[in-house]
Amino acid sequence: MSLRGYETVNDLRRAFGFPAILPPLLVLGTVACNSERADQLAARQVAEAYAAAWRANDSAAVMATLTDDAVLLPFGVPPVEGTDAIRRFWWPPAGPATTVTRFDDTIAEVKVSGDLAIVRGRADVAFTWVDERRTRQATSRTTYLMVLSRPPDGAWGIWRRMWAPLPD
After folding, report:
1. Bridge partners of residue 74, in order along the sequence
2. CA 122/CA 72 separation, integer angstroms
């Protein structure tokens, strides 16, 4: 079959002066670009799963988005290191039951470099809890930065998460 008058791809290369290496480089560049997009999408999906888990008030699903060596860096308090400490921080055994009533997450940026990804965004959260038989409610508007890591098994997870309040 002819390629519009050219018998082979090599005839096309010679006719237009393309070096023989150019098409393989284009293919490698396309593969690398597709791989980076796939990694960005996977990192975004972890961030979206994290927000969805909070909206569902599903502590197990929230924890499933974290790596085993995750660290939280909340504004104004010391780092919270490891999944046991994170679980106690977010769901203290003696604390009141808290219900998330809204978790709006806006992802502003996703960058990937090797086995690390950075997700930057903003979260607007509303929640309620019962205190002395009264239902209380609060809201939180924050900016956040998450660093995700990809272990050898290839599943991205939140490795570090930090947030700070936004002014009203």
Report:
1. 163
2. 16
Give the end-to-end CA distance of the chain in Å, rounded to a whole number: 67
CA distance 71 to 160: 5
pTM of the model: 0.78
**Pairing relationship of beta strands 157-165 and 98-113 according to DSSP bridges:** unpaired
- Tell me: pLDDT of 66 over 60: yes
Distance between CA atoms of 44 and 55, rounded to whole angstroms? 17
155 Cα distance to chain centroid: 12
Residues 6+ apart with CB under 8 A from 102: 55, 124, 125, 126, 139
Strand partners, 114: none
Q: Which two tokens stand for residue 74?
A: 């909340």
